[in-house]
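We emphasize that the prediction below concerns an isolated chain of 96 residues; any contacts that depend on oligomerization or on bound cofactors are therefore not represented. The input was used exactly as deposited, without trimming of termini.
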Amino acid sequence: MNDLFQIVNDLEAKLSKILGRQAMLQEENIRLLQENKQLQQEVEKRDRELKNLENRYESLRVAKTMVGSKEDKHVTKLKINTLIREIDKCIVQLSD
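Result of the prediction step, given as a token string:
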């Protein structure tokens, strides 16, 4: 009979230990889920920032291409002047 009480006491102790461990694991799981959610939000925020920076970079790249160097500006002006002269010639021909 004494052995039976010892077995029940050991079983209760083990069960208490298991329940304590389960509660601890549930708390850790909740904490990890919250941390995971925060990290996912941070990743989404960083993705939005990256897309914003990529858009800004693209805009700056296009603007820089349009502005170009002084040599590019000079060549572009020469081409525009040539086109204007050709257009003027066409207008004169159409007027005649």
